[in-house]
Design a protein that fits this description.
This protein is α+β, with helices and mostly antiparallel strands. It has one domain (5-186): 3-Layer(aba) Sandwich (Aminopeptidase). Helices cover 23% and strands 34% of the residues. The chain has four helices and eight strands; from the N terminus they run ββααβββαβαββ. It has helices spanning 41-52, 65-72, 118-132, 150-157; strands spanning 5-15, 31-36, 77-84, 87-95, 101-109, 137-143, 160-170, 185-186. Strands 1, 2, 3, 4, 5, 6, 7 and 8 form an eight-stranded mixed β-sheet that branches. A hairpin with a 5-residue loop joins β4 (87-95) and β5 (101-109). The longest helix has 15 residues, at 118-132. The radius of gyration is 16 Å and the shape is globular. The relative contact order is 0.28.
Length: 187
């Protein structure tokens, strides 16, 4: 069977100082943000697969339990989960291992919570967490398969593009990309 891949452009961004104003917490929802200690692998897989389904988050789908545990439970990794109305609504994963450089490894919302003003607030919360703990630089990357509002949101909050690169994302065997990206599939 031939290898299947999708071409994408990755934009690397960084922020060297926290924004002077952060997005406000949206009203009308019962919200709780909790840091996950020793994240259960099945819970992480659920968050990652559900949030990333429309955006081809595949890098961690095929990892063994041992490899996934090494990545998400290593020193410096912190995962915070947003709950809305009592159910998981999103998460962010920060990597403090290179402190004072902090990387936003993953950030996203469950599909039913997009477009409800939770994204800007959750991103602002991640940024605030990093800088309140002494970050001098915060980094992240996004790609052309992410939500169309992702890059503009990052830039509105103060992240600046520092590089762009082409990437060929190899799809795991049996993975079918969302319909809107099927045309980008290359054998």
């Amino acid at each position: 069977m031939s290898e299947r891949a999708i071409a994408t452009i990755i934009t690397d961004l960084e922020m060297t100082a926290p924004p002077t104003r952060l997005p406000p917490q949206p009203s009308g929802f019962s919200l709780a943000l909790m840091r996950v200690e020793d994240c259960p692998l099945h819970f992480y897989r659920y968050l990652y697969a559900t949030i990333g389904a429309d955006f081809v988050w595949v890098e961690r789908l095929g990892l063994s339990d041992e490899e996934l545990a090494r990545r998400i439970r290593r020193e410096g990794i912190e995962i915070s989960v947003l709950y809305a109305q009592g159910a998981p609504a999103g998460y962010f994963e920060l990597d403090f291992a290179g402190h004072p450089r902090v990387d936003l490894v993953y950030f996203g919302l469950m599909p039913e919570w997009t477009g409800r003003r939770l994204g800007p607030w959750l991103l602002g919360t991640a940024v605030s967490e990093a800088f309140s703990r002494g970050a001098e630089v915060m980094t992240l990357n996004t790609c052309t398969m992410d939500h169309p509002a992702a890059l503009p949101l990052y830039q509105r909050l103060g992240f600046q593009p520092v590089g762009r690169r082409e990437h060929r994302l190899v799809l795991p065997q049996g993975y079918e990309p969302p319909g809107h990206l099927a045309a980008a599939l290359r054998p």
